[in-house]
Every structure is written in C-alpha cells, then in structure tokens.
Write a structure and sequence with these properties.
alpha+beta, Heat Shock Protein 90, two-stranded antiparallel sheet
C-alpha cells in the first residue's frame, strides 16, 4: 500500500489512523448492529488519529531532525532556513535525511583524515627542520670549541677547521635563504617579473652553468632532438632559470656516471609550453612520488644528505611554478630514470 523506501510522515499518520479507525468501527459493528454508526465512527476516528499522529510526528521527530541539520551546517536559522525547515525538510523521507547525514559524516571523516595526515607531515617537517639546522650548528660549535681549546695556535689545523666552519655557515645561510624564499612565495610577497624570452636559451645557459658538475660525472647535457626550434615563453626569466638549475642539478646529483640529462620542450595547446628535464639515474620509488615536492622530504635521507643540498630545491620549484598559475609533475622508475616536467605560458 505504501512505498516503505520513500515513506513520509503523512504515510505513517494514514497507516496509524486507518488501523485505529478499523478497530473502532469493527467494535461498533459488533456491539451496535447499525451500519451507519461504524461508518461515522470510522471517519471520525480516522480524521482525529490522522491529524494527531501527523502533528506529533511533525512536531517532535522533525524538530529533532531540524536540530541535526543545524548541527551539520553549524548555522543559526535565518528566515530562509526556517522556510526550508518548515516546508522543504518535512517533504524529505527518513531515507533521504539518513543519506544527508551519511554524506555529512563521510565528509567529516575525510576532513579528520586530512587533518591527521597534515599533522603527520607537520611533525615530520619540524623534525627534518631541526635536523637540518642542528647538523651545521653542532659542526660549527665543535670546530670553534676545538680552536678555542688550543687548536687556534696550530697553523696546520686552525685554517682547516676555520674552512670547515665556514662551509657549515654557508650551509646555514643557504638553508635560511631557501626557507625565506618559500615563505615569500607562499605569502605572495615575491612578485613575478614577467617578460618574453626563448626557453631553449635559458636551458643552454643552465647547462653551461652546471657544466663542471656534469663533467665530474662525465654526464652529457643536451636538448632533445626535434626540440631545438626556438620557442618564446612569457614568465619570470630568473625564476624560470632557478627552477631549471634545481632540476638539472638534481639530475646530475642522482644521475649515473657517464649518464645523460636531456631537456625537452613541447608546444601543448598553443597557449602553454611543456618543459621536461629527464635523466637515466637511480630513479624514485613510486611510494615517494606523491611527497617529492615537500620541504625536506628525502627518498633516501642518508644518501641525500651525503650528496648535499638543503632539501628545499623541489619545494621552491613547485612554489615558483604554481605562483605563475602552472603545475609541475614527476615521472620516475627505480634504476631507469626520472623526468620532471612543468608548464609555462606563451606570450
């Protein structure tokens, strides 16, 4: 008689009223053997029972549901919301209300999971930051204490210790500088100075800048065949150079001896250019790829620290590219190589 899946308060009221009216009418029919009395009794009982049942359902059940909705949306009822509670909400079935609550619960669950994940990343970031600062600070402290305790008077030792202390000071300065740059990019304090330039020219300049590092590993740096045709882009030239330096420097660091670093440039849709830096190095495991652009995140912490760097290079690349309204991505397989790519605008 009723669709139980989409049952409404009116359906419930009608069912209860029908049951009460039938019972009352049958009782009258048994004791009063006149046909019109049970009929009148049926109509009166059905009407009264329907009105009362419907009223109490609307009054109490949907009052509780209204509180649930207020809790879900965390709002005070405006006139618009009152109209919704009085006219639209009562038309919803219990199943529909249940679906709304389940959706809300699922959203809250996802938010809680995200907060837990962010808290985990925050703790890791603070631990890594502390470690990055402690290493050079303790090294400087050790060299200075040794010098003050007598090594300063030993010409064959003091210069070496001072040079080591100086290198660690430079490392601290670079670390602070990189952190300051990321903070500026995030806050929007650093405005991009855009201009038109040929992207291949910048790539060649970066290869030349890092040629000594590449030569130490006998690595070949080149632009991919078919990508040499000059393409003009519109972006911050120095920031783009910085991104390319970080990517090529990483390719050299984690590349193989006698390996190669290859730059590719593609015209994607007439409005954007895709730039990729590829190597045939050690590669990155799949589980690390989603987090590779996080600050201080290292796939192999011990080996990465021996190679050097602040651990902020890729994070800076990501912020620079995103500040220009574009995206950066990575593809990699262990022992095969890695490709970093980013998009950049055409004039």
């Amino acid at each position: 008689m009723f669709n139980t899946k989409n049952i409404t308060p009116q359906n419930i009221a009608a069912k209860n009223a029908l049951a009460i009216a039938v019972v009352g009418s049958v009782a009258n029919l048994i004791f009063i053997r006149t046909w019109w009395v049970p009929v009148i009794t049926f109509l009166i009982l059905f009407g009264i029972a329907y009105i009362l049942t419907n009223y109490f359902i609307q009054r109490f059940i949907y009052r509780k549901i209204k509180l649930i909705y207020k809790f879900i949306y965390q709002t005070k009822a405006t006139k618009r919301e009152e109209f919704y509670y009085k006219n639209i909400l009562p038309q919803k079935s219990i199943e529909e209300v249940s679906e709304d609550v389940e959706k809300w619960a699922e959203q809250r669950k996802e938010e809680i999971e995200m907060l837990k994940q962010n808290e985990k990343y925050r703790k890791e970031f603070l631990q890594n930051l502390s470690h990055e600062f402690k290493t050079p600070v303790f090294a400087i402290q050790g060299y200075v204490d040794t010098l003050l305790n007598g090594a300063l008077e030993q010409p064959d030792v003091n210069r070496k210790f001072l040079e080591n202390a100086s290198r660690n000071v430079d490392r601290l300065v670079n670390l602070i500088s990189d952190l300051d740059e990321i903070s500026s990019l995030e806050s929007g304090e650093q405005e991009l100075q855009k201009s038109s330039f040929v992207i291949q020219d910048i790539i060649r300049e970066v290869f030349e800048t890092l040629s000594i590092k590449a030569a130490n590993k006998n690595a070949t740096c080149a632009i991919k065949k078919g990508c040499e045709t000059p393409i003009t882009v519109y972006a911050d030239k120095e920031k783009t150079r910085q991104v390319l330096i970080n990517l090529v420097d990483n390719a050299i660091k984690y590349g193989k001896q006698d390996g190669y670093i290859e730059a590719s440039v593609y015209n994607t849709d007439g409005k954007n250019i895709l730039v990729e830096i590829s190597d045939n190095g050690i590669g990155i495991s799949e589980e690390h790829l989603p987090r590779i652009f996080e600050r201080f995140y290292r796939t192999d912490y011990g080996r990465s620290r021996n190679i050097g760097g602040t651990g902020l290079g890729l994070a800076i690349c990501k912020h620079i590219i995103e500040a220009d309204g574009h995206s950066i991505h990575v593809r990699s397989k262990p022992d095969i190589g890695t490709t970093f790519g980013f998009t950049i605008s055409r004039p």
